[in-house]
């Protein structure tokens, strides 16, 4: 898969010269070691590093859970291409974004995606992508966003996102 392909025709929101250049150079943009927090109104001091915690069926937690009320806006942490909008039993309503340097950003347990968001859309850091919820296997927990970063492909090579999350937009 190349970062410059899309299944949707270019729309007004993806045709600015800056975004076109980013679309072409996405793999050449380094992943910043400092990313903004993806949940509105949550500060770094409110985060808990949940990386590696035990989960059902012998799994380990491959992300950080960011607690927030249901319906709180969730924003992309990076420039990228929306590469997956789906619902599954584990993550519930999820958004996958292919970002800088081939990084994959996983936003799970959403209440819902942003209306009109589609696979192939180009996003930049700070663009609204969804809303906090407790879908999937989190249906009996407090609402939160599960945020994961993968560096070896979609769902492969998980790294702890906690050290990356430092600031606001």
From TrEMBL:
* Top-level taxon in the UniProt lineage: Bacteria
GO molecular-function terms, A-Z: metalloendopeptidase activity
**CDD domains associated with the record:** M23_peptidase
Task: Enumerate the spans annotated as M23ase beta-sheet core domain.
Answer: 60-154
Q: Which SUPFAM superfamilies match?
A: Duplicated hybrid motif (SSF51261)
Q: Which InterPro entries match?
A: Cell_wall_metabolism_enzyme, Dup_hybrid_motif, M23ase_b-sheet_dom
UniProt protein name: Peptidase family M23
Q: Species name for this entry?
A: Acinetobacter apis
């Amino acid at each position: 898969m190349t970062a410059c392909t899309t299944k949707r025709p270019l729309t007004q929101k993806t045709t600015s010269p800056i975004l076109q250049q980013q679309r072409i150079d996405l793999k050449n943009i380094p992943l910043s070691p400092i990313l903004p927090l993806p949940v509105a109104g949550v500060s770094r001091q409110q985060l808990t590093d949940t990386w590696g915690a035990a989960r059902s069926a012998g799994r380990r937690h491959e992300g950080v859970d960011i607690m927030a009320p249901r319906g709180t806006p969730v924003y992309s942490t990076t420039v990228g291409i929306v590469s997956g909008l789906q619902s599954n039993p584990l993550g519930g309503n999820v958004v996958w974004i292919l970002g800088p340097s081939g990084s994959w950003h996983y936003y799970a347990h959403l209440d819902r995606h942003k209306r009109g968001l589609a696979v192939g859309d180009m996003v930049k850091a700070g663009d609204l992508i969804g809303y906090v919820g407790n879908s999937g296997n989190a249906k009996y927990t407090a609402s939160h966003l599960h945020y994961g970063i993968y560096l070896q492909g979609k769902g492969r090579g998980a790294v702890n996102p906690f050290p990356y999350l430092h600031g606001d937009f």
